[in-house]
Every structure is written in C-alpha cells, then in structure tokens.
Known about the structure:
It contains 10 helices and 18 strands. The chain has helices at 15-27, 54-57, 84-91, 158-161, 167-177, 195-206, 221-231, 266-275, 297-302, 321-328; strands at residues 5-7, 43-48, 58-63, 72-81, 102-103, 109-115, 127-130, 141-145, 149-151, 186-189, 210-215, 235-238, 259-262, 281-284, 291-293, 306-308, 313-317, 337-341. The longest helix is centred in the first third of the chain and has 13 residues, at 15-27. Mean pLDDT is 88; it is low at 1-10 and 12-32. GO terms for molecular function: enoyl-[acyl-carrier-protein] reductase (NADPH) activity.
Amino acid sequence: MACARFLTLKPIHGTSTLSQFHRPRIQTFCKVRAFSALMSPTSTAVFYENHGPPDTVTKVIELPPVEVKENDVCVKMLASPINPSDVNRIEGVYPVRPPVPAVGGYEGVGEVHSVGSAVQGLSPGDLVMASPPSAGTWQTHVVKDKSLWHKIDRYTPVEYAATVTINPLTALRMIEDYVELKAGDAIVQNGATSMVGQCVIQLAKIRGIHTINIIRDRTGSDEAKEKLKKLGADEVYTESQLEVKNIKSLLGNVPEPALGFNCVGGNAASLVLKFLRQGGTMVTYGGMAKKPITVSTSSFIFKVCNQFIIHCMELVPFSEFHTALDKALGKHGSQPKQVIKF
Ligand SMILES: NC(=O)c1ccc[n+]([C@@H]2O[C@H](COP(=O)([O-])OP(=O)(O)OC[C@H]3O[C@@H](n4cnc5c(N)ncnc54)[C@H](OP(=O)(O)O)[C@@H]3O)[C@@H](O)[C@H]2O)c1
C-alpha cells in the first residue's frame, strides 16, 4: 500500500517580532525625539527598499540614531552571516520576511553598547547573540528588546557565535527528532558542503553514526570531498558518481540509511531516496536547486517520505559586503559561508 507523509521542517521565525523591529526604525526617519532620550549611534546598514536580486537591490546606507527605550538593548554588531534564507528574503521568495524597506540579515553576534533604563542582567561590553534570530542584523548598531539578546561567553569566536542559532541547531534537531538512531546506523544527505551538512557530519560522527554525503558536480569537488572526510564523513559522492544501476552496492558494510536529509531538491533528492532503506524517512529542509523534488514511483510506494521538513567560514570586512554577497550568491564557485565582520 502506498504510504507517504509530507511534512515540513519549518524555518525559525517570528513575524510579529520582525514587524515590531522594523517599523520603529523606518518610522524614526521623520520623527522628532525628546532631548532626554537615550539614542543609539548612527548605524551603517545593508538596506533594501524593494525585493529583487540582492546584488541589485541592496545598498549600504547610514541610518539615523534610534531611541533606546527602557527595555531595549543597543548592540554594536561584530559579525553576521549571509545565509541562503537571507538571500531569499531579499528576493522576496522566502515565506517569512520583514516588510520592505528593511535591513538584511537574520542572525549575528555583537557587544552591548548601551541599555535602556529597565534592563537588568546585560551591561555595556557583554557579548550577546540575536536569539531567537530576528531580522535586521546586517548593520553596525542594532536596537532591539532585551528578550531578543542572549548573553554568551566573552571568548566565543565571533564567527561561531554569529552562526550558531540557525544551522547547527537545525542539524541537531534533524538528527534527534525524526528517527531514533543508534551508533552504527547511517544517514544519507545531499548538499553536504552546506553549513548544515557539515554540522550533520560532525554531530553524526560524535554519535558513531555513518554518513553518506552527496555533493554537486563542480570545480573543486575533489577538495570538497577531502574537507568533508576530514570532518568525519564516511563516504562522499558527487551526483554524477551516483548514476549507477544499483546505488546500494556502494554502501559496502555501511547499513542502509534509515534517515535522509534533502536541502537541494530535483534529482539530488531522488538520490537521497535511492539510498534510503524501505520505510526510511527523508526530511527536506531546503531547496537550493530551486527545482521540485522528484520521487520515483517505487520510492513513493515502498518508502515513507517525511518530506520537508566545525564548519568552513570566511570572515569578510563589512566594507567588502558586496564581494561577500557575490560569493554567497555562488558567482565565484563553491565558497565557505560568508560572515560579515563589522
Ligand atoms: N528549514 C530550516 O529550518 C532551515 C534551517 C537552516 C538552513 N536551511 C536551509 O538549508 C540549506 C543550507 O543552508 P546553509 O546555510 O547550511 O547553506 P550554505 O552553508 O550557505 O551552503 C549552501 C549550500 O547549497 C549548495 N548549493 C548552492 N546552490 C546550489 C544549486 N543551485 N544546486 C545545488 N546545490 C546548491 C552549496 O553547494 P556548493 O558547496 O557546491 O556551492 C552548499 O552546499 C538552505 O536551503 C537553507 O535555506 C533550512
């Protein structure tokens, strides 16, 4: 009997928070404030007025100071990544996005600059990350309610602190929430060079779980394979290497995976399904190829598909934002995650 379930791993978001954050910032352009109010410094921000290609619609501008209200914290940002979802928000294709005009970015880390009169537990100089993640982190000074900042160890490397809330936690939840795995079991995933993919490899390795990793064919794929193996990947294949009749013959002594992760779509999703054991689960959490998932009839009938759902990074000075954006958009081939350093 056909048995297929289609679920989604919903992205981390909070619509009300986004609009609450964005509107005051934009509205303050023409507001007259009382002299006694605590104000943030001027902020240099990656700003877009309309949706469209990020390399066309974004510009770096100076935003005027905003009031730091009694429960607000003003943070001097230190680093913030360019994630695929940030790109999709600017394009206007991500389901959950702030209203335009908006400042880009969704996660990041910074140092407390000043606090509102009712804020306790946070002081200037504390290292804080935006947690839960929320919109508008691509700017030098961010003012948000105290509940949106989480204090962290002063000595955490900024590139890790800036990127911990979305991708590593997604990897962890996907490993722990869908199938009960034990040491010796296996996972198959595509998009293995992504930050989520790299986290999956390392978290699985710690648990003694094998990983079969699929990457796309592109210049530098041999180097990418080596990097992933150093992180703990058992097997890494390019998509073209998997154009074989009996894909499972490649498994050798590794058991058929009970769990698969798909962040690419198209044929790369079918490859994950081909490796899965009967009754296995495929979690789809992204769609990098922007192509529909193709599922063979036999996979559809004999497999249960739960559809949907120490990474490599480059710190880039804020002054080179548009170079980082080009790299994040794939214009220079496969690149590490771009993290803007303010
Ligand atoms: N649902 C959720 O809650 C959730 C949470 C986090 C992330 N995500 C999703 O997970 C995915 C990965 O995010 P990330 O931040 O880890 O990514 P990332 O580090 O920015 O890496 C991007 C990945 O996408 C691949 N890629 C780019 N364009 C592609 C294309 N046209 N066809 C096939 N592969 C392509 C890249 O391969 P190369 O190395 O070959 O360039 C790389 O593996 C994204 O789709 C993101 O939206 C979802």
